[in-house]
Write a structure and sequence with these properties.
By secondary structure, the chain is an alpha+beta fold. It has 2 helices and 6 strands, in the order αββββββα. It has a 6-stranded antiparallel beta sheet. Helix 1 packs antiparallel against helix 2. The protein is elongated, with a radius of gyration of 21 Å.
Length: about 110
């Protein structure tokens, strides 16, 4: 196997680890159901599963959300659970540290071959 192919694989694996997700969804406070236009949320409507949506418009009683390319109007009183998307510092630090250690390990292993 050529050295170029080894480095190409190493670069690909390193990029995968360094681009790991650093966002998590945190529960929204019950007393503070203020939705922000342009913010991503995870919502549960009735007994359905959680859906990740982007809020496009907010009124007193409804939300206009988009899921993928589909836009729909949701009554606020139909929403049973809400989580908002927030940057997770712990996931970011963990991903960078593990990705860096893996990259160093792979470089060491490939240098022995």
């Amino acid at each position: 196997m050529s050295t170029f192919i080894k480095w190409k694989k190493l670069l690909f694996i390193s990029i995968l680890f360094l681009l790991s997700g650093c966002y998590t969804y945190k529960p929204l406070q019950e007393s503070n159901n203020d939705f922000v236009v342009g913010q991503k949320y995870e919502i549960r409507i009735g007994n359905r599963s959680m859906e990740r949506v982007l809020v496009n418009a907010v009124t007193d009683s409804t939300l206009v959300v988009s899921k993928g390319r589909t836009e729909q109007v949701v009554q606020k009183d139909m929403i049973t659970e809400v989580k908002y998307r927030k940057v997770s510092t712990g996931n970011t630090v963990f991903g960078v540290v593990v990705g860096g250690l893996l990259a160093i390990t792979l470089i060491g292993v490939l240098s022995w071959l």
